[in-house]
Amino acid sequence: MFSHVACMHGAEVVKELLQALPELAMTVDASNTTALNTAATQGHMEVVRLLLEVDGTLALIARSNGKTALHSAARNGHVQVVRALLEAEPSIALRVDKKGQTALHMAAKGTNLDLVDALLAADPSLLNLPDNKGNTALHIASRKARHQIIKRLLELP
User: In which ranges do the ANK repeats occur (predicted)?
Assistant: First the structure.
């Protein structure tokens, strides 16, 4: 599968494959996972950039659970990947998964303030968006005892 090759062999191999067969960027596995989602999850910034250069709309493709590459990058704390995805497709900041959670909900589970800041800079309305259970990012950060995230979210208007 292309996504495994992309992450195991790095950017040079991906670049050569995409030059020969750019349509590989759009392939998905059984759970609708793209190479972009795999690279974003693992923080492979060079591979993310290469894939976004082929087609920035790749960022819009969600896995079968509704999570986009932005959700995955945010959950795993990959700030540069999050910034690249938002630059390629700003509208994905508001995308929700099947639980109604945005990438900010994912970031609130972690400890990376820069990540929270990057997401809120992209769309400040994320702050008050509830998931399917009525939880905002602040609720999630509170449940996870992410004190720095809680403080940052409470500082915002």
Answer: 31-63, 65-97, 99-120, 133-157
Asked if residue 129 lies in contact with residue 135, where contact means CB atoms within 8 angstroms, the answer is no
**All structural domains of the chain:** 2-155 (1.25.40.20)
> Whole-model pTM?
0.86
Q: Could you give the 3-state DSSP secondary structure of residue 28? A: strand
Of residues 58 and 108, more confidence is placed in 108
Kind and range of the H or E element at 143?
helix 137-143
As a whole number of angstroms, the distance between CA 74 and CA 69 comes to 8
Where does residue 53 rank: exposed (0-12), middle (13-18), buried (19+ CB within 10 A)?
A: middle
